[in-house]
């Protein structure tokens, strides 16, 4: 159904795509893989007419096509669901699905009845139930994802691009999305699926095309390749292990956070745990188990009912993130683009944003030379790959954006770091770099709380693991007890403690 042949694209002097090929059949889920910066998104934007190619041919059903803008791609049956949702939160699902192409009555008024009927028809075809009349801001992330897919399918899309559609979904929601994808595949829709979760590729996809540094590496059937071969195609080398070796247990290490009582909700259970110097303490549990809320309550960023915490022996609990920062706690939040970075700012501005006080001289003036010197050191320490400290953060890959946030806290000298889903949306090569960096930080004396929904990440990297259920820690595991079976046992049946 789709052929892209010899696609080339340059932005200024930088060649992004070097004659890349892609072939997708009708009724196929085709994975498009590669590290961040490999050219996947650029390739899909060219397919959808969002940007133009410098050279190459796009054929749909054997006919050469050139799309000057997105509307022309839509008319040809191409739909895309971007990683960042393009929904207007205060409009309903129906209004979002028909945005900018509303159906009208013969008197020029909105034909809401016809739009609602068509929206329901498309969602019924997907086999999903979504409230059509609620603002999409009130829908779950999974429901918003299905509204995005319905929007594309309402355009009669025969070629559907899904860019990281599972990044914010729970496992049960992912399974439901896969059910929808299988149904679309049976209807003859050609699906291009982009994901960094390799286990998903082997579960849902038929074939795989790999790009590396803007070059076409090859196309393979899923049954003809294993994970190690696939990773080698993506990164150009074999990664024997994602995780650096764990150090020996140090039970006598100094306690930097002693959480004696954290109660998130009135009449709810309470948590207690300790974070030691030089360790990675994993926070594991099902979605909604209270992992992130507990970590944020330590920083005064979540209104817990009770927080009795000692930080480096001081029993005064931070009342807000500013006080937590002053006490040496830095946060790498789950959403780096919305909460961790000002993406339109440069690397240097993001690294310095909490530190301008130390660069001030002569009143309102800044010591720019000192700022640049410290920024260059921080980004070199965490190995940010960028043209220089003045590069805008929105031009960086996901892994390098994460490193910029880490560089900010190193520049601020925060010895306690909370990493919330540190590798979400990051490719396999960048994950290994982040893991290595985290281990190096603990060897230098930093202490890390790592919140993660990926069990292999928890078991492979954490020195000890706090397992959460219903808003509280129900078990703390170490040594051989850190395994997926033990974690899931406690996450589903762990005993809860209540304040007397």
TrEMBL record:
Q: What residue range is the signal peptide?
A: none
Q: Which InterPro entries match?
A: AAA+_ATPase, ABC_carbohydrate_import_ATPase, ABC_transporter-like_ATP-bd, ABC_transporter-like_CS, P-loop_NTPase
Keyword annotations for this protein, in alphabetical order, are: ATP-binding, Cell membrane, Membrane, Nucleotide-binding, Repeat, Sugar transport, Translocase, Transport
Compartmental location: Cell membrane
Q: How does it sit in the membrane?
A: Peripheral membrane protein
Q: A Gene Ontology MF term for this entry?
A: ATP hydrolysis activity
Top-level taxon of the source organism: Bacteria
CDD domains with a match to the protein in the record: ABC_Carb_Monos_I, ABC_Carb_Monos_II
Instruction: List, alphabetically, the GO terms of the cellular component aspect.
Output: plasma membrane
Q: Which residues form the ABC transporter domain?
A: 2-238, 253-495
> Where are the annotated coiled coils located?
none
Q: What is this protein called?
A: Ribose transport system ATP-binding protein
Record organism: Sagittula marina
